[in-house]
Design a protein that fits this description.
12-stranded mixed beta sheet, 3 domains, 20 helices
């Protein structure tokens, strides 16, 4: 089969104005960025249209190094619905440069199930990530400048919570010391960087509905504490307007297309393990306004991205998903069962059966939210008919719908079975969304409910730093905020080497971060890094420009 790059190059995109016209987007709302991508200048939403549209979340079982293919399935499902003459819009996150040049290599789908222009989407795109990085670091520089000129004063800053960010995997920036070599360079401080998808401004952008709320959220960001012990915000710094100005265009959703011409709105990109893992509310609501069906996804598995999608994003935006698609692969299930990587592609019903414990757990997680679930096997060429039949029968016994996705090899045609299953499930009204916790619960209770109900663990262990932060949260009156768990994606526990399926574990809470502007509390589980590192041989070694074309991104 041809490479993702070759397939993408052979499929010339249609003019973006034609894609916009087909989805019913008025021409005056389109801001073209060249011929094949555009911003959507939307500033109001039709609540009746949004309520009438069917929102489908695509999530997955616990990921492995072999991958699951969640984005490929999302794109294929959208193309499959389009082939069945449904008015559908895809809503995805933007890829981060860090993983593209690190281990992942790209996040725009694969095979014949891609969004294009693939190279643009995976690299600079429309500059949203750069704008967030610039805004974040401008704000950090302004904070340090304020500290410099207010040294020794009660209103001066004693504690700075804000960190700089960069959309690059760079482990040496996790912990650094700034302002060395003389007093004119500022106040020496221990600090560090987070990757741009983990910055609070990324979450602010993704959870704001329009420019007005974006400014309000920026103003509310808690930057630190003064020597007098008072909280210090962006509003106190007096630069909310300047930071908003840097994000004026970035708040607008981006429009591109799939290989088969299905409209795709790609906007925002918080990671699912160290951030809230969902594309922007602006993107999702725009898609719902112009599509009868909207396919979206959340980062990593149901215990991470999906949990945050429901408890944070849907709660904030008033969204009511019609159903959830749970993606699995035979190799991921076998790896979950303990099979070695060199044998994961071999037929093995016993290992597959053992691995279904992981799938069963994720079905149970989605059902805690009152979701109707469709299990989708993302098919590989080594999957046998016997294995597929076994999974289909297992799902039938568990009273879960099942379908096979072959979009990687066949595009939308290969996702027809999935699309038909989705249409069938969506015929009946969806039950009301059930949250894991109430906003009125205290922070410890919210964390404990996620650990016990979603992860299936026994309890939480709060370290001293986390306990101190809970005290500050209480004193600031912020206990009503939802929580965002920063946890490894490879396990239900905080230890990637232990599956946690037996439920015999506690979750260690190392630290808690107040994202007052974004409107949630980040709970750091175990030794979770918010700035990834690069692998021994990064994907950057294979990226090049040949005859004017970027190669090596897939």
């Amino acid at each position: 089969m041809k490479s993702d790059f070759e397939i993408a190059q052979e499929n010339l995109p249609r003019p973006i104005a034609a894609i916009a016209a087909e989805m019913g987007l008025p021409g005056e709302l389109l801001i073209p960025y060249g011929h094949y991508k555009a911003k959507i200048n939307i500033n109001s939403f039709d609540d009746e249209k949004i309520a009438a549209s069917k929102l489908i979340l695509v999530t997955a079982i616990t990921p492995t190094k072999a991958g699951i293919g969640k984005t490929t399935t999302s794109i294929g499902l959208a193309d499959g619905l389009k082939k069945l003459n449904k008015k559908v819009v895809l809503a995805l996150r933007e890829p981060s440069l860090g993983p593209c040049f690190g281990m992942k290599g790209g996040a725009a789908g694969g095979g014949y199930s891609q969004v294009i222009p693939m190279e643009d989407i995976n690299l600079h795109f429309t500059g949203d990530f750069h704008a967030i990085t610039a805004a974040n670091n401008t704000l950090s520089a302004l904070i340090d400048n304020f500290r410099f000129y207010n040294r020794g004063k009660p209103e001066g800053l004693k504690t700075v919570l804000m960190k700089r960010c960069l959309d690059v995997n760079d482990r040496v920036l996790r912990k650094i010391v700034t302002a060395l070599d003389g007093p004119n360079n500022g106040i020496p401080s221990e600090t560090g960087f987070v990757i741009t998808p983990a910055s609070e401004l990324m979450a602010v952008l993704c959870l704001a509905e329009g420019l007005g709320e974006l400014r309000e959220k920026i103003e509310a960001m808690l930057l630190g504490f003064t020597f007098a012990g008072k909280p210090f915000t962006t509003k106190d710094l007096g630069v909310s307007g300047a930071i908003t100005a840097l994000l004026k265009d970035a708040i607008l959703p981006n429009l591109v297309q799939t290989l088969e011409g299905c409209p795709a709105i790609i906007h925002g990109g918080p990671f699912g393990n160290i951030a809230h893992g969902c594309n922007s509310i602006m993107a999702t609501k725009t898609a719902l306004q112009f599509g009868d069906y909207v396919v979206t996804e959340a980062g990593f598995a149901s215990d991470l991205g999906a949990e945050k999608f429901f408890n944070i994003k849907c709660r904030k935006a008033g969204l009511h998903p019609a159903m959830s698609v749970l993606v699995a692969t035979s190799q991921a299930l076998k790896l979950s069962a303990g099979i070695s990587e060199d044998k994961m592609m071999l037929p093995d019903i016993n290992s597959l059966k053992k691995g279904l414990r992981n799938l069963e757990k994720h079905i149970a997680i989605l059902k805690t939210f009152n979701q109707k679930v469709l299990v989708v096997l993302n098919r590989y060429n080594f999957d046998t008919a016997e294995e597929i039949d076994f999974m289909r029968n297992w799902c039938h016994e568990k009273e879960s719908a099942f379908a096979v996705n072959d979009a990687f090899k066949m595009g939308g045609e290969g996702a027809i079975e999935v699309a038909r299953a989705v249409i069938n499930i969506c015929k009946d009204p969806s039950p009301p969304l059930q949250f894991t916790y109430e906003l009125s619960d205290d922070i410890e209770t919210k964390i404990r409910k996620i650990v016990t109900v979603i992860y299936g663990g026994k309890d939480v262990v709060l370290y001293k730093k986390a306990q101190e932060m809970i005290g500050k949260i209480k004193s600031l009156g912020l206990e009503h905020l939802p929580v965002c768990m920063a946890k490894t994606q490879y396990s239900f526990t905080d230890d990637a080497s232990v599956s946690g399926l037996d439920g015999d574990f506690n979750i260690d809470i190392e630290d808690i971060v107040i994202n007052r502007g974004a409107g949630f509390i980040v709970v750091v589980c175990g030794e979770m890094m918010r700035m990834p590192g690069l692998p021994k041989i990064p994907q950057a070694n294979f990226i090049d420009v040949v005859d004017g074309k970027i190669v090596g991104i897939s």
